[in-house]
Design a protein that fits this description.
Chain lengths: 179, 423
């Protein structure tokens, strides 16, 4: 499987690359910096992964063609917020923001332990997107598009604080009908 | 012809030898005190015979050519300022201090403090001369150190009010998502003509042992490092980084300080963030599936401070070498913040001083798959020509940080220098 990982100048992108490469059989992960997004060919990739990153969605224009490409997309942290923004949702400062802490959430009927690193959150959810996990304060932790293969995780499956990070990659592949 | 001698020497005599070699043969010293998680072999580079002075645009090929070329090991330092150019962070600030300085030597002494075994290699004449020093070493023992005390108040780049204002600004940047954790430092500067930086180094090492002491000459500068922190070790391709985050001062009962450290969600989150950052930084050059965390939230004591750390391990890819990994991971994440490039830009904006070697690394490169390096914290630079002594101290700022407490933690880290200055 060919995976394109777009790096939004983040310091966890290589962790995500290693997670994808180890969770998916015979995966080839190609990492491309955000700076090259304009004009980047999306062809030849089975799934596109949008990395976390500093700043807010408005600082990262140009993702519309990624989300409208028809290809499966997984967005992590900022990546999920970018999907949400694309469908008209909004992002705001999270009161009592959390970095480097693990938390239990319910994800598709199972309790899982996930790492959180975010100052901002999806304060309103875009049209056609379902919130499939929230934390105990109601903050959206996972989004899935109603009929397109687009999903996002607010938490960080690639963190060492997340228990069993591979399961979130496997879920993304099943959701996108790639597994 | 290179020659090799194995000898046994106790630690006090080894330090006396280090001093003699530094005074008579411009030796650079990389000395490790035993009993710490970062404990490693000590190295003395005797009589430098080749050097590479790193400039802003020095590329990895040039560093590899020097480090992996004939005659080794290669020792020296890389400055934080070189890390800024590697990570694409621009600076308007001027500094005369080199971006880095690597050297090779006519002879090298390796010493293992635990077994007291000393190993000498290099040019025969210099090795024989060194053996003569060792035979007469008792003549050099118990000498009065020549460190000249200074009682003047240092000039501080970020005083209490400015440091606290900096922390408040960082908290705003955290709320906007530009950083999760950022290391903010201040610089202390003393005017002290005729200071002997070697004596300062040896006195600190005697009174405040730590695993990564280093004394390196670079032109008019003497780098005096008393770091407790390993950056990256690579041994036959096995990578180990040991980031430190979380500090507790021991006042009376050590177990109380220990609990306050490992039970603090703030201190633990600080370490966790940096562990994820270090995992990322070594991953660029490690085999898939090899990067792992062992011993998260381990604690050791250095001076009157408890420090929390973790072991991040991995396997160097077979098509990469230690310079690839070092330069991709540099500067160490524990002294920048996370995400790294974004945090370094904010540091550059908020700190009025240059960091120079502070938060860079002292390092020893043996070959393509063997090296060791420190994070150059608890580090001073003395300029012989101006008589100026610079020392830096910093602290990791996270959303739960209290500006006043972070200033106190920063000053606690300056403690041993402040104490030795006022002795």
């Amino acid at each position: 499987m060919n995976i394109l990982l777009i790096d939004n100048n983040d310091s966890f992108t290589r962790n995500l690359e290693h997670l994808l490469a180890t969770a998916v059989d015979e995966a080839t992960v190609h990492v491309e910096p955000y700076a090259n997004l304009q004009g980047l060919s999306l062809e030849g990739h089975d799934i596109l992964v949008v990395s976390p990153g500093p700043g807010a969605t408005a600082d990262y224009p140009g993702y519309a063609r990624v989300f409208d490409s028809g290809k499966p997309v997984l967005g992590v942290c900022l990546g999920m917020q970018l999907i949400n923004t694309h469908f008209g949702g909004s992002t705001d400062r999270l009161p009592g923001c959390v970095h480097g802490q693990a938390e239990n959430i319910v994800f598709h009927d199972r309790t899982v332990t996930v790492a959180r690193y975010h100052s901002l959150y999806c304060s309103s959810v875009g049209r056609e997107l379902n919130v499939t996990a929230r934390n105990f304060q109601g903050v959206p932790m996972a989004l899935e598009h109603r009929d397109r293969p687009l999903l996002g995780y607010q938490f960080h499956p690639e963190s060492f604080l997340t228990v069993g990070g591979e399961q979130f990659v496997h879920h993304a592949l099943r959701f996108s009908h790639l597994a | 012809m290179p020659c090799v001698f194995p000898i046994s020497l106790d630690p006090a005599r080894f330090d006396a030898l280090a001093e003699v070699l530094a005074v008579r043969h411009q030796a650079d010293l990389f000395l490790s005190s035993p009993g710490y998680p970062g404990e490693t072999r000590s190295f003395i580079g005797v009589a430098p015979c080749a050097e590479l002075i790193i400039e802003e645009d020095t590329g990895s090929e040039k560093i590899k050519e020097f480090a992996f070329g004939p005659g080794g090991p290669c020792m020296g330092f890389l400055s934080y300022t070189y890390g800024m150019s590697l990570r694409g962070v621009n600076s308007e600030k001027k500094t005369e201090f080199p971006y880095g300085h690597l050297k090779k030597y006519r002879a090298v002494v390796k010493y293992d403090a635990a077994s007291e075994g000393l190993h000498l290699s290099g040019e025969e004449k210099l090795c024989r001369e060194t053996i003569q020093y060792i035979e007469l070493i008792d003549n050099y023992l118990n000498k009065e150190l020549k460190f000249k005390p200074m009682c003047s108040e240092p000039e501080v780049s970020l005083g209490r009010a400015a440091y606290e204002a900096g922390v408040a600004e960082i908290l705003e940047r955290i709320r906007d998502g530009w950083t999760y954790q950022l290391n903010l430092s201040t610089r202390l500067t003393w005017q002290s003509h005729d200071l002997d930086p070697l004596a300062l180094f040896l006195e600190l090492r005697r009174d405040y042992p730590a695993p990564f002491y280093g004394y390196v000459r670079s032109g008019a500068y003497g780098v005096v490092s008393s770091s407790p922190e390993r950056f990256i070790q690579i041994k036959d391709g096995q990578v180990l980084s040991q980031p430190i985050k979380g500090t507790a001062r021991v006042v009376g009962d050590e177990s109380e300080a220990y609990r306050s450290l490992v039970d603090s969600s703030k201190e633990c989150a600080e370490l966790s963030m940096i562990v994820d950052l270090i995992r990322n930084d070594v991953s660029a050059n490690c085999e898939y599936g090899s990067v792992r965390v062992e011993g998260h939230k381990f604690v050791f004591r250095v001076d009157d401070l408890l420090q929390m750390y973790a072991n991040v391990r991995g396997t160097l890819r077979s098509d990469r070498d230690c310079v690839d990994l070092l330069l991709d991971a540099f500067p160490g994440g524990s002294v920048t913040g996370c995400p790294k490039q974004s945090s370094m830009r904010i540091i550059e904006e908020l700190e009025p001083h240059t960091r120079d070697v502070f938060c860079g690394s002292l390092l020893i490169i043996e070959d393509e798959r063997n090296m060791d390096s420190s994070i150059a914290i608890r580090t001073a630079v003395y300029d012989d020509s101006s008589g100026q002594l610079d020392y830096w101290a910093g602290s990791g700022i996270v959303i739960a940080s209290d500006p006043g407490l972070e200033y106190l933690e920063t000053m606690a880290k300056a403690g041993k220098f402040l104490q030795s200055e006022s002795k």
